[in-house]
Amino acid sequence: MILMAACKKTNQRGETQYKLNSNSVVEWKGTMDNGFNNGSFDISEDYIIVKQGKITGGSFVFPIVSIKNFNLPDSLKEQLLHHLKSADFFNMALYPEASFSITKVQPYPGGIPDAIAGANYLIGGNFTMLGKTNAISFPADINITGNKLSVEAKFEIDRTKWGMHYASDPDAGLYIHKDVQLYFKLSGERK
What we know:
By secondary structure, the protein is mostly beta strands. It is 10% helix and 52% strand. The protein has a single domain, classed as Lipid/polyisoprenoid-binding, YceI-like (Lipocalin).
């Protein structure tokens, strides 16, 4: 019985899917010269593929409508979130989702500044936002124990590479730094 149950969880190529839990999130932080804003996105349509104890693929989507803010008072949160969903930033009406798909995972060689503590792998993949896809890579702390999986990674992307140019000119009064910090906090269980 146990062998039959294990076989159902693994496909013919020896791959196993791990479904990400509802507490998996993508946190974000944007900075300005006089402060920052931070928050998170929920994750949906999510899975990670594991073969022989190592991640080999997977993808997840984060709906823009799920964006949250952590640092502002309630009176200002809705104003910021409405602006972030507008054409100035995520243009949610045309691009309701962003996504990441894993294309490569290899041992982390070290040496990348500000890598998350415990980083043991370098993840490469395609990040899609505002209808544009760019390849990115980042160090991650990946743990697979029994039926459970966790992935943590903290890195920065240049938002202008996806066409998000609002307030990106340092000489034009309001300036929001081009680099946005992302923090993947993922956990899942074998399907």
